[in-house]
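Any chance you could type out some protein's one-letter sequence along with its backbone structure tokens so I can compare the two?
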Amino acid sequence: MTALVGHDEAWREWRAAMASGRMHHAWILAGMQGLGKAHFARAAARELVAEPGVPQPELHPDILLVEPLPATEDDARRKEEGKPYATKRNISVDQVRQIQHRLTTRPTLGARRAIIIDPADDLEKSAVNALLKSLEEPPTGSFFLLVTHRPGRLLPTIRSRCRTVRFPALRGEDMDKILARLAPRADAATRAAAIAAADGSPGIALGFVEQELGPLHATMLRLIREGDEHFTLRGELAAEIGARPDRERLLATLDLARAVLAGAVSSAPGLQQARIIEAHASLAMLTGQAPTYNYDPGLLAMEIGGLLASVALPRETA
């Protein structure tokens, strides 16, 4: 877990703080989705709470995880069975208050307790306000790790009370090594397409390979280059997504569409850049809604395709 690529500087900063004896009580782990920030948070928390000579259980009582709850009772059962499940849209104030109640007691196995909020982007407004009280007056021995994909969305009052560790996007050669190790069946062409689409995120690149998104990627590129006046490419996109895709495939498709737009913006002329930014914002909103709302896959494919096609310049302009 600690050997994930791109975490060396984060580990140096974390371990230097632990060794200094002046450990900050709250940390923001910031970077794009798919960089392994949550893995880092869990491993760092285990180092933080470990006591010499005291056995450390796998499910550690002094590591408290706050994350979106399963959306329904059926999803809760799927989670217990280790199956994919949908989650609620936000982390509620009740979840934060339950953790705060735990903080009134002493840690179970040692002198320290770690609270991981993953992702902090999903805290509802009242939950943020409740968390702020704990950050302003942290209980002795309690340390907060806030995983965030979009740190700018956190309130300035939250950011000002935390120390920030940034996780950089990975280089292409590092991404290729990860894919070669974790997705050995993918050929060089598939790995290259995954790396291009993922924009430095190994998590997105792995999803690209596992979900076999190569044909989707090619169609998305055609949509932003050519548009789709007669809805032909949108139909192809819907067929490639499938009539009954699972939740993971839909979310991977949305991530891919956003990555395609992000990769296109730097080389686009000014007129097209504005369209790309607007379409990317709409896709980001759609991605946030998808886990909660039961979208029809065909209509969702048409919506994604329409947003991608909207950025294409007229042929005489292009």
In short: Residues 107 and 190 are 48 Å apart (CA to CA). The two ends are 47 Å apart (CA to CA).
